[in-house]
Structures are given as structure tokens and as C-alpha cells.
Design a protein that fits this description.
two-stranded antiparallel ribbon
Length: 121
């Protein structure tokens, strides 16, 4: 099995083994993944099942054949860490101080990307 789906499969197995369907009701994990018992699973297990199906489908999708499936980091989610921020761009212009017009310093105005005039020191 390719390594792109191993993490999510392991998380699904762990979720199923700790679910009420397997522990208390004593059903087989494969039975718990089928429609009559699927609704009794926790939401997390249902989401992992859907994600695992999408991962397996992505392995044969011709649009993803060259790039492959995106790696799924399940272990960080299990530990409670937040996923990294995708975009960490700064503001386009530096913050501007408001002046009263009575300063002795040389003051210049600048037009920002949004078309507003800004005072620069």
C-alpha cells in the first residue's frame, strides 16, 4: 500500500477499535463501517472513513497521478496541535502614525497600494 494512505488508515483503525460499536456491541470493525451501523460511529470515525475513501480514490485519479495524494498529517491532529497557517504575509504598507502638523521633522506623504495617502517619516 502506498505511504500516502497509511496514516489515515491507522487513525481509522484506532478510532474503530475504541468505538462503542466494537467495544460494547462486539461487532466486527468491517460491519461497523457499513450503513446500518455506520450512523452509530462517532463523527471523527465517519470523517476518517470518508477521508480514507478519498485517499484511495486519489490513487487512481488520473489528475493526481503525477503529483500523488497530498500527505495527510493525522498525528498532529491527534495530539491537539493546530495545523500550520497557510499564508503568513505581512501588511502591504507599514503602519502610519497620525500627526498634528506641528512637528519639526520632515514629513513626506506616500500613496499606498490601495490609493490612500499616508504620512511617512
Amino acid at each position: 500500500m502506498p505511504s500516502s494512505c497509511k496514516d489515515i488508515r491507522a487513525a481509522l483503525v484506532e478510532c474503530l477499535q475504541s468505538s462503542e460499536c466494537v467495544l460494547i456491541q462486539r461487532h466486527q470493525p468491517t460491519d461497523c463501517l457499513r450503513p446500518p451501523l455506520l450512523e452509530t460511529l462517532p463523527t471523527r470515525c465517519q470523517q476518517l472513513k470518508k477521508g480514507y475513501g478519498e485517499c484511495k480514490r486519489g490513487m487512481i485519479d488520473m489528475r493526481k497521478r503525477f503529483r500523488g495524494n497530498q500527505p495527510i498529517a493525522v498525528s498532529k491532529e491527534l495530539e491537539g496541535e493546530k495545523p500550520p497557517q497557510l499564508y503568513a504575509g505581512g501588511p502591504t504598507a507599514s503602519p502610519v502614525k497620525v500627526t498634528s502638523g506641528h512637528e519639526d521633522e520632515k514629513v513626506e506623504t506616500m500613496i499606498g497600494l490601495d490609493g490612500e495617502r499616508r504620512i511617512v517619516r
